[in-house]
Amino acid sequence: MTTMQLLGRAKAAKAAMALADTQKKNDALHFMAQELLVAREDILAANALDLAAAKGTVSDVMLDRLALSPERIAAMADGMEQVAALPDPVGQVLRRVERPNGLVIERTAVPMGVIAIIYESRPNVTSDAAALALKAGSACVLRGGKQAHRSADAIVTALKRGLERAGLPADALALVEDTSRASANELMTASGYVDLLIPRGGAGLIRACVDNATVPVIETGTGICHIYVDAAADLAMALDIVTNAKCSRPSVCNAAEVCLVHKDAAPAFLPKLRQRLVDGRAAAGEIPVQLRLDERAAAIIDGTSASDADFDTEFLDYILAVRVVDGVQQAMEHIAAHSTGHSECIVTSDDHAARTFLTGVDAAAVYHNASTRFTDGGEFGLGCEMGISTQKLHARGPMGLEELCCYKYLVRGTGQIR
Amino acid sequence: MTTMQLLGRAKAAKAAMALADTQKKNDALHFMAQELLVAREDILAANALDLAAAKGTVSDVMLDRLALSPERIAAMADGMEQVAALPDPVGQVLRRVERPNGLVIERTAVPMGVIAIIYESRPNVTSDAAALALKAGSACVLRGGKQAHRSADAIVTALKRGLERAGLPADALALVEDTSRASANELMTASGYVDLLIPRGGAGLIRACVDNATVPVIETGTGICHIYVDAAADLAMALDIVTNAKCSRPSVCNAAEVCLVHKDAAPAFLPKLRQRLVDGRAAAGEIPVQLRLDERAAAIIDGTSASDADFDTEFLDYILAVRVVDGVQQAMEHIAAHSTGHSECIVTSDDHAARTFLTGVDAAAVYHNASTRFTDGGEFGLGCEMGISTQKLHARGPMGLEELCCYKYLVRGTGQIR
User: Fold this and answer.
1) Are residues B49 and B63 in the same domain?
2) C-alpha angle A332-A334-A335 in degrees, rounded to nearest 5
3) Distance between A2 CA and the closest CA of chain B, angstroms
């Protein structure tokens, strides 16, 4: 089927999804989880073909992302049950006013309609994204990466059976067959068909969507996150936070890429930082962090000299750019010039500096004395997430079920005219 | 100054706007209102030049929209005082959670940054839009129509004096000097400078923004609004609602353009409709409404035959397209195919039909037994409005101060790592 045909069918299915009550949607998620387990052998067989085709052409890290196992499929099914357990956002009255003329106006959460998601190679995104979009009352059109297409197809085939068992249209979930760039462009420009497009992937994909899309887009997930260690920081806490934000999972968007250090803290802090991230890790048999130092930092500790580009790069690796700054104002100026608006942190025991930073830094999440790694739907208490929005329109930070909905006004009268 | 220079200065001014407290912003609005009155003669002189240049090239309606008077300037100043009196959305904690690990996470309303507005000939939009954007804590870049440029320039000059008297940067408010299409395109593609673009104008302008913009846009104001008169409608109420929605101000976006009538109500209702809108108005010396009838309506009353295009046209005039439908389902299908997602109404005393319509119709505002003319910030209790959003992302329906803000998460910890 062509992408436009899939979109036409998804559009036709959106009314049934919008009218489905909570019970029906939860039944569907439950059946979808069951069908994933039933189809386990089919999914693993498809995944084996994907893996065989990819072997030798991609890194081991990529192969691991692509690989499914009985445990990973069980985790995907679990994920669907977890989404079923979350409160239904659709139909919530967000605000209610009764006007002097007797009109009752209710701002009410309603589904977006058709949500399209462009993603890359991790097959579990297929079930995660479908569960969230469907629970939010929308039809869901998925466009995955070429390398995972067989796996995604087997997953979607199983999930569609679950939808049908619940009496919902199988067309409400679709996987785009064409994995070339052309189908991504079709989704970006399918005005009247796609109510919301969410690109989940690298900076290139996101930029292409923002530049070319005529449908509504939410940018996700590019994170050049900064930790600013203030003069008044507890240095042990700062060390723990920087280490966690950099090393606990360097490949994710909420990992730190840059450490800014107050000039008065630098002489004491930087040697400790080097010890912890470089020498200590090497001694413990862990991958040491490569430090890229500005001039003032390089005058205190050893490391690679930073180029200008190092302060504008999402390394997603064991690399940390380090700059010494004069104070909170210069730290904020640096962040304003280089941030992607994801997550930024100040470590300080000075309340005034903390307030200045929290108020003045423009990002989805601004932290005082905690790791940027907490920017996550689960950690924020949303129970799930579709991605981390780095734009300001509609949703910012982790997007849960509420953020996948819009609202409309229901106005009830008794013949009022103006 | 070039448009990009203005934008650079507005961007530099946005931090000062974001940090300004409520008192300072309200002082600025108060001083801006005073300066408008002080500059009254200058503004009227500039307006006289605009009027002289426009005379003979535009309609009398357009000339009236362009014309200022001492009373209109006083009303603009009053409007600024009214915005000052509204609650400040910035800094409101929209949601607060304390996580089991002790993190305190606050979703907090913050300004957009730089809001750009492209509008057409009414000079009062200059002060209205500036007041709303500035009170919402954003810098404001205005790009008005060529015909009103001298007036807008005199108004902005006065308003900037008010900003400065309050200790806020005059650069936080700017009027684009170039009124050619090029400057509109510059605003649409000024990524990194424009945080939100709001086009206020005809369908052509809005379409150009949606197609070409790489900055975030909110579509406003195209309204093909429908009134569906159900079999169970109180016909006197239906007549009042259709008359009000069509005739009270036909040139605005919340005016009705189409009346859908249930086949069982049509024989009784259509003759009354014709009497009220056509013959009655003519007899009273009012402009009669031209009815454009589908075949089934034309079998009951006299009128012009409707073409297909009549059901996809925002007439903004004393013209009403009329179609007879089989029931609420067909009415909803018609609306789904032809609506611009602005305001739609059902007139009925049947609760089931009302519920079906309210739930199933996808529009910013869906009415039961009230005129679509109420879709307005003031009528909805917002105290003001920047326009009516007809998109689903971010804001839908009338946009007040809250809808001109976004949010960020403030996360306070005591050294938490993950």
Assistant:
1) yes
2) 65
3) 23
* Chain A residues within an 8 Å CB radius of B103: 370, 374, 379
For residue B357, give the chain A residue with the closest CA: A410
State the nearest Cα–Cα gap between B91 and chain A, in angstroms: 9
- B369 and B391 assigned to the same domain: no
B251-260: pLDDT as tens digits: 889 999 999 9
Total domains in chain B come to: 2
CA distance B98 to B305: 64
**A192 with A230, same domain?**
no
Inspect the interface and report whether the beta carbons of A105 and B381 lie closer than 8 Å. yes
CATH number of B340's domain: 3.40.309.10
- Please name the member of A365, A391, A394 whose beta carbon is closest to the beta carbon of B409: A365
Which has the closest alpha carbon to B415: A138, A244, A410, A257? Answer: A244
Query: B4-51, pLDDT tens digit by residue?
Result: 999 999 999 999 999 999 999 999 999 999 999 999 999 999 999 999
The pLDDT value recorded for residue A62 is 84
Distance CA A254, CA A123 (A): 21
Q: Are residues B203 and B105 in the same domain?
A: yes
> Rounded CA gap, A146 and A11, in Å?
24
Domain membership flag for residue B344: yes
Q: Are residues A101 and A57 in the same domain?
A: yes
User: At a CB cut-off of 8 Å and minimum separation 6, what does A355 contact?
Assistant: none
Q: What is the pLDDT of residues A341-361, one digit of tens each?
A: 999 999 999 999 999 999 999
For residues B121 and B231, membership in a common domain is answered with: no
Task: Please tell me the predicted confidence (pLDDT) of residue B362.
Answer: 95
pLDDT in tens, A167-199: 999 999 999 999 988 999 999 999 999 999 999
Both A128 and A112 in one domain: the answer is: yes
Residue A28 falls inside a structural domain:
yes
Give the best-scoring range by mean pLDDT among A215-224, B206-215, B288-297: B288-297
Chain A nearest-CA distance from B361, in A, is: 9
- By C-alpha distance, the chain A residue nearest B358 is A410
pLDDT at position A405: 98
Beta-carbon count within 10 A of B50 CB = 25
In this structure, how many other beta carbons lie within 10 angstroms of the beta carbon of residue A53? 15
Residues B133-161 pLDDT 10s: 999 999 999 999 999 999 999 999 999 99
Does the residue A417 lie in any domain?
no
What is residue A257's predicted lDDT score, i.e. its pLDDT? 98
Separation of CA A393 from chain center: 15
| B200/B114 same-domain check | yes
The closest CB to that of B411, out of A211, A374, A409, belongs to A374
Residues of B in contact with A406 (CB under 8 A): 392-393, 396
Distance of CA B163 to the CA centre of its chain: 25
Q: Do A214 and B210 touch (CB under 8 A)?
A: yes
Q: Are B414 and A369 a contacting pair at CB < 8 A?
A: yes
The domain containing residue B358 runs over which residues?
225-374
Higher pLDDT among residues A203 and A29, named by residue: A29
- Identify the closest residue of chain B to A194 by CA–CA distance: B392
**Residue B204 maps to which CATH number?**
3.40.605.10
Question: Is residue A178 in a domain?
Answer: yes
CA-based nearest residue to A80, from A119, A42, A134: A134
User: Which chain B residues touch A397 with a CB distance below 8 Å?
Assistant: 408-409
